[in-house]
Specification:
It contains 19 helices and 14 strands. By secondary structure, it is an alpha/beta fold. The chain has four domains: 88 residues, no CATH class; 172 residues, 3-Layer(aba) Sandwich (Rossmann fold), CATH 3.40.50; 141 residues, Nitrogenase molybdenum iron protein domain (Rossmann fold), CATH 3.40.50; 39 residues, no CATH class. The strands form three sheets. A six-stranded mixed β-sheet has the order 1-6-5-4-7-8, with helices on both faces. Strands 11-10-9-12-13 form a five-stranded parallel β-sheet, with helices on both faces. α5 packs antiparallel against α6 and α8 runs parallel beside α9.
Length: 505
């Protein structure tokens, strides 16, 4: 391991350890203050002394009270020893390590090709594979391992997704700007697309449909799919079946950042693609972003990382529904984010209780619980304030369980996908309503859109000027070129204008 990586990991854990110790000291001090008969503000001064922070605190404020001390220790960004500062530094070191490690994966794949993929698959997935390619026979055989009920569900979901994405087709744009000047825009499918399907703890045939169907509708000629192998060194039958329904015949057992690198750079087995699609963990997201910045890389759909949901709810919301929607994201992984914003304290407490009741019934409770432990329940003064918080967060999934939900749509600016009303669970968009579930996370909904048909196509423009068009537009072009000092631009028009005058004569 490079020294830089080792240092980053060391300081990440050092800062986390430091934040934990500060929290424990704070807890001890708080208990002393509450239980001491002769408690005074000096008790908190002793906490500052124990952390060697008293002098720094007194430089910031002359007002000495417990609230200010707690705020200084917990969340003051100007205090390098505050918990928020420690966590921020830990996060920055983690991000640096993730970036560097991902670069190393790219270098390994570039230098060692398939061999690097075999090594990373064994290292990260715990599976020693002998082949990266999934044969057509293996794909065909997978059909027999999928239940009739699931086949029917996959077909219905595909039909709905197909219908919604076919509706996104647009006509060719043709405009006569002025007499003799014709402009039009054409769209063609991206020829080679790479579809990444996360493995994780469960197969995701729904993601195959969300990527494969629009690629099919767009007419992408070459569609390849990468997904991690299961413990039996095989592809999940549900993924293979869904891929076949989408006309995907090139499937490779490869996951993580190394799969992104392989699709971007190409190896002996995995062809290079023009654009990479699909969600993944933080390393996959980092790999996609690095790909988009490489001259020899590929375009990407969006930064789509760990899942997140924000629920807007008022006093009329069903707390059981709210809890179920929060848990729907939490069960994706411990790093999933679940947030409830409401103007009702009663609703928040009822939703918390419902979360605990429902958690006890979930098969993936051990995955969902860590995520819910980090969930946030935010009380707003009014619904408008709750919407402001939602816009600032720009959630991947935004569930609006408030009375007359449609009336508030004009005020909602940022979200990957919106689910209106009590009967629109996030699950509908994830599976079968027809909209795409590949959505921007990390707040990228402010400048990225949900995946759609046009993401699988490229647009280009055409312009055609006739003689009349040159006569009508030429003087304006020459004036603008002269203003910018681009003589060759001006001359390209001037020569044509001169030729027209000679012809007219």
């Amino acid at each position: 391991m490079l020294g830089r990586n080792a240092a980053g990991i060391f300081w990440m854990f050092r800062y986390l350890e430091r934040s934990e110790n500060i929290a424990r000291i704070m807890q001890a001090g708080h208990r002393m203050f509450l239980t001491s008969i002769n408690s005074s503000y000096e008790d908190w001064a002793s906490i500052l002394d124990a952390m060697s922070l008293r002098e720094h605190f007194e430089e910031k404020t002359a007002e000495f009270n417990p609230s200010k001390v707690r705020n200084f220790i917990l969340r003051d960004a100007d205090n390098p020893s505050s918990i928020i500062s420690c966590v921020t530094n830990a996060r920055e070191n983690a991000r640096m390590v993730r970036t560097v490690l991902t670069k190393e994966v790219f270098e390994a794949v570039a230098n060692k090709g398939d061999q690097a993929l075999f090594e990373y698959t064994e290292k990260f997935d715990g599976v020693k594979t002998i082949s990266l390619s999934v044969t057509p026979d293996a794909v065909a055989a997978a059909k027999n391992r999928v239940s009739p009920a699931l086949k029917s569900a996959i077909q219905k979901a595909k039909d709905n997704i197909l219908r919604f994405h076919e509706a996104q087709k647009t006509q060719e744009v043709r405009v006569e700007i002025i007499k003799g000047v014709n402009c039009w825009q054409k769209k063609l499918p991206i020829e080679k697309v790479g579809l990444y399907i996360p493995g994780g703890s469960a197969p995701l045939p729904s993601t195959v449909l969300m990527l494969g169907v629009p690629a099919l509708v767009a007419g992408c000629e070459n569609k390849l799919l990468c997904t991690p192998p299961n413990k039996a060194q095989l592809i999940a039958p549900e993924i293979a079946y869904a891929a076949r329904k989408c006309g995907i015949d090139k499937i490779y057992l490869c996951g993580g950042a190394q799969a992104v690198a392989a699709m971007a750079l190409g190896t002996d087995t995995i062809p290079q693609v023009d654009k990479i699609f699909g969600p993944g963990n933080s390393f996959v997201t980092e790999a996609k972003q690095q790909v988009s910045q490489r001259a020899d890389g590929a375009a990407i759909d969006m930064p789509a990382g760990p899942s997140e949901v924000l629920v807007l709810a008022d006093e009329f919301a069903n707390p059981e529904f709210v809890a179920a929607d929060l848990l729907s994201q939490a069960e994706h992984g411990p790093d999933s984010q679940a947030i409830l914003v409401s103007n009702s304290a009663t609703l928040i407490e009822e939703a918390k209780a419902a979360v605990e009741r429902q958690l006890a019934t979930l098969s993936r409770a051990e995955i969902a619980r860590p995520a819910m432990e980090n969930a946030r329940y935010i009380l707003a003064d009014r619904i408008e304030q709750a919407i402001e918080a939602s816009n600032a967060y720009a959630a991947e999934h935004l569930i609006v369980q408030i009375e007359n939900a449609r009336d508030y749509l004009p005020k909602i600016k940022y979200a990957g996908s919106i689910f209106l009303g009590p009967w629109s669970p996030e699950s509908a968009g994830d599976y079968a309503s027809g909209t795409n579930h590949v959505l921007p996370t990390y707040g990228y909904a402010k400048n990225y859109s949900s995946l759609g048909l046009l993401d699988f196509m490229r647009r280009y423009t055409i312009q055609e000027l006739s003689e009349d068009g040159m006569r009508n537009l030429g003087p304006a072009i020459m004036a603008l070129a002269a203003a910018e000092g681009l003589d060759a631009h001006e001359q390209a028009v001037a020569l044509r204008m001169q030729a027209l005058k000679q012809g007219d004569a």
